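Whiteboard transcription, Tuesday session. T.W. wrote the structure tokens on the left side:
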């Protein structure tokens, strides 16, 4: 597949970008406590903080918003979302939420009892936080290759079946709330899960009567990787692969802000009517009525259209091709990145990028801050800061210490990617100048969002 496939769309509206001076950016990062989450967006020339809610919507989505039914109960906009999920994902029951973490909250309350265990193919920050707040213990059962940024495994998101079954033997199937399989795996570098592995997990779950759930936030991108890399799927559409993948799951949490191509929204979808009933009861308490879940009718309409558009083969070929284009430019220049290049972002390997810093010097946080100062490109730390602390209050030390360059969908051109690549390459040539950081403020939960730092002496 060529990595520079032309955009399968035309641009109808533009938003001006402003490049601030280096001195202005230096002042901004200091004011933000060297945390890119605390920067004002107007200071960011190219904003690669996240692909969550930052997509450009299509003309069909904007048109659909005009017919949004804003009724408090029984809105027809919910009916259209429900039908889209049923047709595209094959799951009969749908409960909308304001975004993905709202869905994570509900399913954690429903399925987890204190003392239960929740295996998954690598943690995600908000997912694990909700699981732990509900009294669960997270267990990483991803294959070992996922923790090696240079490993070339085509499906580094796969569940290690031996580790999963060993956990069942250790704690008992009755003490496992569910297994959560992410499609794709964000913190492994946007790495996919194979269909064969999904089927293998299903067999284990059937044998032990364990619920098989999915964080399906980037399921369309996972489907594209199956199409390109797994035997027998090259001639199958991504839309059909999505339906086949989800046929093995009991339910899913969805952040519509990714592979539903909207700026806000999410949902739970499931097969079990008893889980559905509990979700409808809880959503009223935490989100809103079961037919809007904290969203406006127009948001439901846009999501119903977007989840279909996101499985279009031409769109996915360009979307992942653009990520690959940036990653290949960096690889050619010798910049250490997670390989293979993932579906939604290029991940810089901060430990190899900054070998003069230890992990306790917060190298990924330092690199993200310095990249902004050098170029106006905003990125995100995904390492020791994101991993947080354990029950004893000690820093968790993940094997991966990464900076995520996250590409919003249908927003930037490959010329923007060239600007990003040039900035990262130049920074890599002068990496020894980058100093480590230390905490000056740290909240107890999800600290990466609001912590503040200062350079080490």
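and on the right, the sequence the group agreed on:
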């Amino acid at each position: 597949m060529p990595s520079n496939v032309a955009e399968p769309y035309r641009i109808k509206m533009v938003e001006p970008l402003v490049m601030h001076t280096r001195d202005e950016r230096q002042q901004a990062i200091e004011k933000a406590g060297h945390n890119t989450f605390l920067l004002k967006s107007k200071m960011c020339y190219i904003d690669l903080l996240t692909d969550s809610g930052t997509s450009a919507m299509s003309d069909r989505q904007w048109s659909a918003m005009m017919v949004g039914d804003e009724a408090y109960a029984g809105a027809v906009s919910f009916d259209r979302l429900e039908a889209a999920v049923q047709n595209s994902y094959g799951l009969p029951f749908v409960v909308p939420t304001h975004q993905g973490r709202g869905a994570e909250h509900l399913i954690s309350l429903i399925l987890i009892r204190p003392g239960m265990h929740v295996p998954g193919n690598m943690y995600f920050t908000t997912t694990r936080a909700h699981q732990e707040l509900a009294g669960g213990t997270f267990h990483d059962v991803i294959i070992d290759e996922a923790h090696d940024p240079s490993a070339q495994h085509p499906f580094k998101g796969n569940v290690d079946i031996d580790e999963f079954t060993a956990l069942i033997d250790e704690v008992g199937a009755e003490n496992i709330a569910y297994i959560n399989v992410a499609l794709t795996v964000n913190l492994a570098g946007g790495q996919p899960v194979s269909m064969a592995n999904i089927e293998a997990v299903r067999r284990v779950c059937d044998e032990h009567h364990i619920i098989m759930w999915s964080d399906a936030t980037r399921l369309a991108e996972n489907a594209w990787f199956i199409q390109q890399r797994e035997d027998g799927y090259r001639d199958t559409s991504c839309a059909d692969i999505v339906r086949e993948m989800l046929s093995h799951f009991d339910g899913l949490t969805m952040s519509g802000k990714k592979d539903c191509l909207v700026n806000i929204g999410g949902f739970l979808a499931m097969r079990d009517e008893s889980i559905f009933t509990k979700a409808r009861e809880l959503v009223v308490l935490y989100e809103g009525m079961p037919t809007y879940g904290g969203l406006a009718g127009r948001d439901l309409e846009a999501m119903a259209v977007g989840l279909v558009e996101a499985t279009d083969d031409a769109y996915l070929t360009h979307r992942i091709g653009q990520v690959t284009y940036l990653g290949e430019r960096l690889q050619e220049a010798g910049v250490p990145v997670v390989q293979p290049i993932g579906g939604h972002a290029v991940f810089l390997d901060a430990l190899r990028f900054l070998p003069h810093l230890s992990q306790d010097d917060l190298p990924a946080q330092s690199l993200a801050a310095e990249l902004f100062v050098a170029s106006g490109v905003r990125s995100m730390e995904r390492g020791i800061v994101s991993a947080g602390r354990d029950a004893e209050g000690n820093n968790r030390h993940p094997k991966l210490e990464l900076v995520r360059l996250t590409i919003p969908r249908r927003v930037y051109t490959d010329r923007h990617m060239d600007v990003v690549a040039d900035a990262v390459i130049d920074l890599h040539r002068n990496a020894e100048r980058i100093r480590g950081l230390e905490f000056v403020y740290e909240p107890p939960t999800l600290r990466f969002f609001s912590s503040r730092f200062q350079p080490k002496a």
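Someone added at the bottom: The longest strand covers residues 93-97.
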